[in-house]
Amino acid sequence: MIIVTNQNMTETQWENLCRNLEERGFQIHVIQGVEKRVIGAVGDKRRVDFRYLESIPGVEKVIPILSPYKLAARDVRPEGSVVQVGDLKIGGGHFGVIAGPCAVESEAQMMEVAEGLKAAGANGLRGGAFKPRTSPYSFQGLEETGLKLLAQAREKTGLPVITELMNLTELDLVVEYADIIQIGARNMQNFGLLRAVGRQPKPVLLKRGLSATVEEWLMAAEYILAEGNEKVILCERGIRTFETATRNTLDLSAVPLVKSLSHLPVVVDPSHGTGKRKLVIPMAKAAVAAGADGLLIEVHTDPANAWSDGEQSLDLNEFGELMKEVRKILAVEGKQLG
Amino acid sequence: MIIVTNQNMTETQWENLCRNLEERGFQIHVIQGVEKRVIGAVGDKRRVDFRYLESIPGVEKVIPILSPYKLAARDVRPEGSVVQVGDLKIGGGHFGVIAGPCAVESEAQMMEVAEGLKAAGANGLRGGAFKPRTSPYSFQGLEETGLKLLAQAREKTGLPVITELMNLTELDLVVEYADIIQIGARNMQNFGLLRAVGRQPKPVLLKRGLSATVEEWLMAAEYILAEGNEKVILCERGIRTFETATRNTLDLSAVPLVKSLSHLPVVVDPSHGTGKRKLVIPMAKAAVAAGADGLLIEVHTDPANAWSDGEQSLDLNEFGELMKEVRKILAVEGKQLG
Amino acid sequence: MIIVTNQNMTETQWENLCRNLEERGFQIHVIQGVEKRVIGAVGDKRRVDFRYLESIPGVEKVIPILSPYKLAARDVRPEGSVVQVGDLKIGGGHFGVIAGPCAVESEAQMMEVAEGLKAAGANGLRGGAFKPRTSPYSFQGLEETGLKLLAQAREKTGLPVITELMNLTELDLVVEYADIIQIGARNMQNFGLLRAVGRQPKPVLLKRGLSATVEEWLMAAEYILAEGNEKVILCERGIRTFETATRNTLDLSAVPLVKSLSHLPVVVDPSHGTGKRKLVIPMAKAAVAAGADGLLIEVHTDPANAWSDGEQSLDLNEFGELMKEVRKILAVEGKQLG
Amino acid sequence: MIIVTNQNMTETQWENLCRNLEERGFQIHVIQGVEKRVIGAVGDKRRVDFRYLESIPGVEKVIPILSPYKLAARDVRPEGSVVQVGDLKIGGGHFGVIAGPCAVESEAQMMEVAEGLKAAGANGLRGGAFKPRTSPYSFQGLEETGLKLLAQAREKTGLPVITELMNLTELDLVVEYADIIQIGARNMQNFGLLRAVGRQPKPVLLKRGLSATVEEWLMAAEYILAEGNEKVILCERGIRTFETATRNTLDLSAVPLVKSLSHLPVVVDPSHGTGKRKLVIPMAKAAVAAGADGLLIEVHTDPANAWSDGEQSLDLNEFGELMKEVRKILAVEGKQLG
Questions:
Q1: pLDDT tens string D94-115
Q2: Is there a single domain that holds both residue C306 and residue C210?
Q3: Smallest Cβ distance to C40: which of B35, B38, B43?
Q4: How confident is the model at residue D154 (pLDDT cuts 50, 70, 90)?
Q5: A169 and A20 share one domain
Q6: What is the pLDDT of residue A329?
């Protein structure tokens, strides 16, 4: 940790600061600069929040040197992690394509889409039973009925199922039915929820928050890892920027960046990331080329009548086209599906 | 609702669209423009999500005309709402100053700060018992012990107490001790939590999310109002932008804007909004001048030794200075404290 | 154009508004909604700014229907434009790789890098002679000497040369030496400069501004096109967002989006877009997969001693690696280099 | 300057780095941390760009300690600068209210508005003769005719005149007519223009760029100061964020922040900052309370028929109301108009 002091710090303030640091177990190295005095405080204290040092009179800035996450860091497992559920493998050269409707709507819908996806080559099935909706008046999901339909679709197709958990109170229910538990963007810093999914055994797909930095995202993963669950998949799904021509701004550079910082696999959701059907295929291809370990794609048998997010859903034909294109880039990358 | 169609829409697509709208109870008005055909679809359907219309082939854009919130809208109560707890009134010309430490740390700290705040003129007491922290390794709050210390400080000073609720599982506990329940920025779209606080009787202070638009913020309030709890206070606490010189960018223009759109009172948190102690007083004054109904201020008896957020906390002397300045602007505004 | 009125608009205000519109040549269609009255005003008035209508008492919102650019729109040339300079072709299935140092530094540097790039397969040479620098104390470029060195490198390698024009006063000088004139991100809305390059015959590469929407970017291109120069290449180089882990956020989804809206070719600059050397190759590949028509890559023979932007420059070996990877994705895309 | 190295830096790389720093005149202090080795490099090298150090193999991060601006820094003139033109004083307890139409439209308009503003208490007159417009088809200003009308209005009212300079080629013309030269937000990093206004004697009002950090804004001022012109006024006019309910997000916290970092006076433009007429008065008041040294307000005699920006212009009655409110807050602040 580097501590920059003001020119007008008094000697008493200086001594207080040094004593404060030493009491907390730091070794102190002082550098006298041209205008400012700087302290290098040595000691692995990443588990403590030292932002409070900035409030000590005479302290101008505190600059941490070590990254604040430990279990998520690349050097914990330099070869990279692989998360596996049945035939679906994500990471380490294995690529997952998880597809399905935004919301589970009916048995007919789920069976038709699941079989179509399986035929086209998807190796995971997504579908929302609990839906986070901006408006209290919008459709909020079929809840347990939706979970049962997902399980039924898994039964029929063998595809592992991923679905979103929104509330602690529904944890047991979702864990019972799902193969992978999704934490949505709006809950990326719902720390109670993160801890809870960290204490159960199923893999967790952690979406990046709308305005989360890469560091905050990795710290959210650290919450899950710190509870003992190592099976975390990160999902880039677009961040909020000034640009309104797309629903979000898909930050594909986060893929190679996160992979250099962390051992966790990273998948990309170009459906939410762009919010526009015509951009999904090009951005899915770009995600593969950027080094992603998988994709999350919204597919609906009849997007024009979807109960939510129809404007960004592909139909089964378009999904077939996506798979064809994605396979070509995967071949270049030397990665295999599943 | 206005629906803009593509030039290359087919007649069959056009007929499908019109039938779809009529089946959902809309009256259709067609405007033939120079290049595009536009539909005005009349009917109060704000409770339904019609974004899916954008996925109908031939539809280019769907533009809602009515605002999506109803209970939060200004015209429900044009004179504005007042939220009252004991002597603390917020809204309708009454101004609340709620102050206290970021986190409850000890009995000595809470009693000293509460008495100091009371003496300086605060009419509400804040303090975190459950703390949302970016890192799993940071101090997470004293939990029930913290709530008890808050209650004890209320006992001693008569100040009503506000504290954050983070998880559904702690709802009963927090409701038991708190006078006002705070929903933090990270939980602004934790819809299960919003519904739960909408079903209990205590007032709710709803912080704006880091990347929430004013419309999304009002929709989050609508979740609470829709469950029957009318006592909602909005709190502007800064949004996330590209600027890193301040912790967040305090969006003061949201105060007069929200007050024109909604009847709900709006308070401002310049401590989180700026993250820098020296900016708290000027921005507190600016908030009053912009028309805010109250302030949320972090105060610590010894900021340099605070367990969290010390760099943005005032000490009691500085808080006294803030009150002196704020009273002057309140006099100009013709508003009264409490 | 759609005009939404307030519920409390008076009849006099209504009549004034209607007269105002009719005087400007609009046909008026009135839609009486449940709560609001809406006007559809028909007439191709895209060349006029009608935002002022929002200031007419009783008018709540004005929503344009037609996009504000005309010459840049896709339907002007649905097959897409190709910009050609010597052997370098960009657009219509032809892919350009323009590479070189951030700043021209010396003859030795330019000759070495230009020959290395040519050998590795680049088909254009970039280099800054006038450098926009945040600090007045930073190196500002070799100016005319730099332009001469670029011309000399072109002489030797046959590679067409692209360089940035910063000021109107240097227009003739830059036009004399350059094959393609670059307008930098900071000058995207320097309208005098846009008009000036629109009146000369050389192709223009127009970088997207740090905080420019796609629509504003296309409007900036419209300034050049409106003066008669049709040879405009757009360049996505990252936008400014809250994320600081990368220098900018490379908005790759803008590539397929712009290509659907406009006939102009789009190239991508992953060097500025990410600001980190290790992210350049993955994002270059992703750009090709997203449908870009070319790349702009910073290459320096000795990045550790570059006079500017060394942290994002590749060396010649790394550039060779980039070309190898890019060729593979180009093969999948069915595009050819040059 | 602090240089953080990677764990896997080789000894040769280490020696190269140290030699490189010493050759550039730095004294080196090494701190051996738990995981990383850190160098404190001492020497006032703020005039050099050391970002290139990040490209030296083994270097992870370079952290500057000194702020990059020198002439703009507060400690150059701790009492703060005052810019004076005739009776208009800005800074040091003097408050300027500069008002007028977005664009100069006609003699009748300018005379009427100037006299009305003078009567209401404005002490400066603004008006655009050259207008930066997103669309090439929008009204671009009356140019020299506009400048002459401004001079005529000054003649009549005694109010000093401020107008925007957009192009180097119009410098002499604008300097001839204007009392204060405005550099617009889009030109904040038009470095040639900054240097040019730094070499002439009239005061310069420098608007903050749409996506400029406070540091970049001060560096832009440094460009002007470094050429010898000390009469620089900064103008906060809103930054671009994700929020679209206002035209920009007015960053009022930048006012006290900049005043703590720099001796330059800061004024606020709530008209562009919010883009909504009804928000102008509350935000003007808030600006005064936050410590601003002046205001820039758009006023039009007939906003509904303004040629540009009518939706954010006050009429003369509203401006009178603004002055009444602003005077009250000025009294509290102990500042005087002019």
A1: 999 999 999 999 999 999 999 9
A2: yes
A3: B38
A4: very high
A5: no
A6: 98
Rounded to two decimals, what is the model's pTM? 0.94
Q: Least CB-CB distance to B277: which of A20, A51, A55?
A: A55
Cβ of A252 and C211 within 8 Å? no
Task: Indicate whether B156 and B266 sit together in one domain.
Answer: yes
Task: Give the 3-state secondary structure of residue B173.
Answer: helix
State pLDDT tens for residues C97-127: 999 999 999 999 999 999 999 999 999 999 9
CATH of the domain at B323: 3.20.20.70
> Which residue from D minimizes the CA distance to B288?
D286
Residues B207 and B273 in one domain: yes
Chains in touch with C (3+ beta-carbon pairs under 8 Å) read A, B, D
- Please indicate, yes or no, if residue D206 is contained in any of the structural domains: yes
Look up the CATH number of the domain holding residue C42: 3.30.70.1140
Cβ-defined contact of B36 to C66 (cutoff 8 Å)? yes
Instruction: Among A32, A38, A44, select the one facing D34 at the smallest CB separation.
Output: A44
* Residue C60 near chain D (CB below 8 Å): no
Look at residue D69 and tell me if it is in a domain. no
Distance CA A17, CA A10 (A): 11
Please check whether residue D138 touches C, CB under 8 A: yes
Tally of domains in chain A: 2
Residues within 8 A of D (CB atoms), C 310-329 only: 310-313
- Would residue C69 count as lying in a domain? no
pLDDT of residue A140: 86
Positions of chain C with pLDDT under 50 = 47
Nearest to A139 among B49, B57, B192 (CB): B49
Residue C231 domain boundaries: 74-337
**Residue in A214, A216, A252 to test binding to C, most C beta-carbons within 10 Å:** A252
The CA-CA-CA angle for residues C239, C244, C245, to 5°, reads: 110
Contacts by A189-193, CB closer than 8 A, 24 or more apart? A189/A216, A189/A220, A189/B132, A189/B134, A189/B186, A190/B166, A190/B186, A190/B187, A190/B190, A191/A223, A191/B132, A191/B133, A191/B136, A191/B140, A191/B166, A192/A168, A192/B166, A192/B167, A192/B169, A193/A165, A193/A167, A193/A168, A193/B167
State whether B169 and A169 contact (CB < 8 Å).
Answer: yes
Per-residue pLDDT band at D230 (split at 50, 70, 90): very high
Q: Looking at chain A, which residue has its C-alpha nearest residue C325?
A: A332
Mutate which: B14, B135, B237, vs A, most A CBs within 10 A: B135
Are residues D214 and D306 part of one domain? yes
In a shared domain, residues A174 and A255: yes
CA gap B44, C33 in Å, rounded: 8
- Is the confidence at residue D9, as pLDDT, over 90? no
B contact test, residue of C35, C65, C210 with most B CBs within 10 A: C65
Per-residue DSSP letter, D25: T
Residue A275: inside a domain: yes
- D44-60 per-position pLDDT tens digit: 665 455 666 777 778 88
Closest Cβ opposite residue D242 in set A32, A40, A240: A240
Tell me if chain A has a CB within 8 Å of the CB of B192: yes
> What confidence tens digit (pLDDT) does each residue in C126-152 have?
999 998 888 888 888 999 999 999 999
The verdict on B194 and B46 lying in the same domain is no
- Does residue B184 sit in the same domain as residue B253? yes
Q: Which residue of D has its CA nearest to B273?
A: D253
| Shortest CA distance from A243: residue in chain D | D242
Q: Which 8-state DSSP code applies to residue D250?
A: -
First to last CA, chain B: 43
Q: Is the minimum CB–CB distance between D255 and chain B shorter than 8 Å?
A: yes
Question: How do B336-337 and B294-298 pair as beta strands?
Answer: unpaired
Q: What is the DSSP letter of C89?
A: E
B307 interfaces chain A, CB cutoff of 8 Å:
yes
The Cβ-side half-sphere exposure at D106, using a 13 Å CA radius, reads: 8
Out of A13, A38, A63, a domain closes at: A63
Reduced to 3 states (helix: H, G, I; strand: E, B; else coil), residue A31 is strand
Residue where a domain stops, chosen among A10, A38, A63: A63
**pLDDT at B46 (0 to 100):** 55
